[in-house]
Design goal:
Blueprint (H helix, E strand, L loop, with lengths): L16 H5 L14 H4 L2 H6 L5 H7 L5 H10 L9 H4 L10 H6 L28 E2 L5 E5 L29 H9 L6 E5 L8 H12 L6 E5 L2 H4 L6 H7 L5 E5 L9 H12 L4 E7 L7 H13 L3 E7 L13 H9 L12 E6 L4 E5 L4 E4 L3 E5 L5 E5 L7 H4 L10
Bound molecules: iron/sulfur cluster.
């Protein structure tokens, strides 16, 4: 069983394998009159985001009726927001451009399937204080802000992110920190949101410092899409703040090889050079990355950016996301075409966040064909079968004792 060639029409965004594998910059594109200094300024990027239908119509004459209608309604669900840098990655000629599908609203977002929810991971039910989710025994999710550099149309936290629904998220860091301080079982804190790296260096410094001062907090993590949406934010000043709080890991969120530009790679290298281990979380999305070849190029490119593919998420059952969701069968097939066909470090764990708050459940293709008391029948990545003799679970200590041998030098 060899891996199949690319089969998702349009999802390569007009580029072949070599083009997708290359690190390129889209440059200043529509903003060519802006100075290099402004373009490199992350605050300029944020101030000049595309947030209205009028801007979209001016910058993207190929806007479809579905996108126009979706954008008109976006501000009731999840705001429209795209940094100029990320907008330049859109291929205006391709309605199925994988960048475009992630950030430009579509009318299908207004259709909610019966199984879809506003809080698909049941975070509210596991929230002992506002902005803190304590679902797993030894770790908490610490929500820092409801703002992001750009807004993903499939966002699991659309109920609060961007405040389009009037959720009014105003976290009280003191209360969140007090909860962690009074729960010695919490050894791992994940900062997320919204995007924590939108906080100023000073605020991040104070927050990370307060968490690091709690003796039982062993490990800090940040979940962010900033290196992909706004690589200009990864300044040396920010890296100098982050490197003070090791062990600190960062999980980025990239879905498609075209997001890994020259600028994104440079930003990720700055983080890696600050000693921060980097992982990536992708969401499996229809006509974006639901293709084995696209996914293989993406994970290989991530390794070249010093990022280890960590999770591949089956898209959560967020309201209005059916048009972006791919079958679990497809996800398993993509995993089957990764394992063995590329570096093990490049293979993420495919998971479903169990609806309603059950936590992450890993999904793997069937490699164990049968398992009896005395043997395991295995299928390898090519489909060939192998037998492995099973060891008994309980071996009496005396029977298991082996004569001691000195190590031999050869
Ligand atoms: S960056 Fe993350 S939190 Fe923000 S909109 Fe995208 S998925 Fe949601």
């Amino acid at each position: 069983m060899e891996p199949s060639a690319s089969s998702t029409e349009g999802s390569e965004g007009g580029g072949g394998r070599a083009a997708l594998k290359a690190f390129v910059s889209a440059g200043r594109g529509y903003w060519r009159d802006v100075s290099a200094e402004q373009w490199e300024d992350w605050r300029w990027q944020l101030k000049n985001r595309i947030t209205t239908l009028a801007q979209l119509e001016r910058l993207l004459p190929t806007l479809t009726p579905e996108e126009r209608a979706g954008t008109q309604l976006a501000n009731q669900k999840l705001a429209l927001g795209i940094t100029p840098y990320f907008f330049n990655l859109i291929d205006p000629a391709d309605e199925f451009c994988p960048i475009r599908r992630q950030v430009i609203p579509r009318i299908e977002e207004t259709v909610t399937a019966p199984w879809e929810m506003s809080d698909p991971c049941g975070e509210e039910a596991h929230s002992p204080v506002p902005g803190l989710v304590h679902r797993y025994p030894d770790r908490v999710l610490f929500l820092v802000t409801d703002r992001c550099a750009s807004y993903c149309r499939y966002c699991t936290r659309s109920r609060m992110v961007s405040n389009a629904t009037g959720y009014d998220f105003h976290p009280d860091f003191e209360q969140q920190i007090a909860y962690i301080r009074s729960h010695p079982e919490v050894r791992d804190v994940l900062l997320s949101g919204g995007d924590p790296l939108l906080l100023s260096d000073e605020k991040l410094d104070a927050l990370l410092g307060a968490l690091r001062a709690i003796p039982h907090v062993e490990f800090l993590r940040i979940g962010t899409r900033i290196p992909i949406f706004l690589p200009q934010r990864i300044t040396s000043g920010l890296c100098n703040v982050l490197r003070r709080y090791h062990p600190l890991f960062i999980s980025i969120h990239s879905n498609h090889p075209r997001e890994l530009t020259l600028e994104a790679r440079a930003a990720l290298e700055r983080l890696a050079d600050a000693g921060i281990p980097l992982g990536n979380q992708s969401v499996l999305l229809r006509h974006v990355n639901d293709d084995p070849e696209i996914m293989r190029i993406h994970v290989q490119k991530l390794l070249m950016c010093r990022v280890r593919p960590y999770y591949l998420y089956q898209c959560d059952l967020i309201a209005g996301s059916s048009h972006l969701r791919t079958s679990v069968r497809r996800g398993l097939e993509i995993m089957r075409q990764l394992r063995g066909y590329t570096t093990g470090y490049a293979v993420p764990t495919y998971v479903i966040d169990a609806p309603g708050g059950g936590g992450k459940v890993p999904l793997t293709p069937e490699y164990v064909v049968s398992h009896t008391a005395d043997r395991v029948l295995l299928r390898n990545y090519k489909g060939d079968l192998y037998e492995y003799p099973e060891a008994p679970d309980e071996v009496p200590r005396a029977a298991s004792r082996r004569p001691q041998c000195e190590p031999q030098c050869v």
